[in-house]
Amino acid sequence: MNKIVKYVTIDILKSKVVLTYLLFLFLTCFGIFNLDNNTTKGILSLLNIVLFIVPLVSLIYSTIYIFNSGEFIELLVAQPISRKKLITSIYAAVSLSLVTAFIVGAGIPVLIYSPDKIGLLFIITGALLTLIFTSLAFLGSVITRDKAKGIGMAIFIWLFFSILYDGILLLIMFQFSDYPIEKLIIVLSSFNPVDISRILILIHTDYSALMGYSGALFKEFLGSQKGSVVIFAILIAWIIIPAIAAIRKFIKKDF
Amino acid sequence: MNTEEKFVIGKKFWFRFLRWIRPLFLSVVFLFFLLPLHAGVINVSSRDKITTIKQAVEIATDGDTIMINGGMYKEKNIVVKKKITLLGKNNPLLDGEGTYEILTIKDVAGVVVSGLTFQHSGFSSLKDLAAIKVIDSRHFSITKNTILNTHFAIYIAGCDSFSITNNQIRGTPGNDEQTTGNGIHLWKNSYATITNNNISGHRDGIYFEFVQHSTITGNYCKSNIRYGLHFMFSNNDEYIQNTFEKNGAGVAVMFSHHIHMFKNHFLFNQGESTYGLLLKEINDGIIRDNVFEQNTIGIYLEGTNRIDVTDNKFLRNGYAIRIQASCNNNNVNKNNFFENTFDVATNGTLVLNNFNGNFWDKYDGYDLKRDGVGDVPYRPISLFSMVIENIPVASVFLRSFIVFLLDQSEKIIPSITPENLVDNTPLMKPVKM
Amino acid sequence: MIDIKNVNKKFGKLHVLKDISVQIKKSNSVALLGPNASGKTTFIKCLLGMLIPDSGTIEINNQSIKGDYKYRNIIGYMPQIGRYPQNMTIEQVFDMILEIRKTALSSADTELMEAFGLKALFSKRMGTLSGGTTQKVSACLAFLFSPEIIILDEPTAGLDPLSSEILKEKIKHERSKGKIILITSHILSELDEMVSEIMYLREGNLVFHSGIEELQSRTGEKSVSKVITSILKTL
Question: Looking at this predicted complex, what is its ipTM?
Answer without folding.
Answer: 0.88
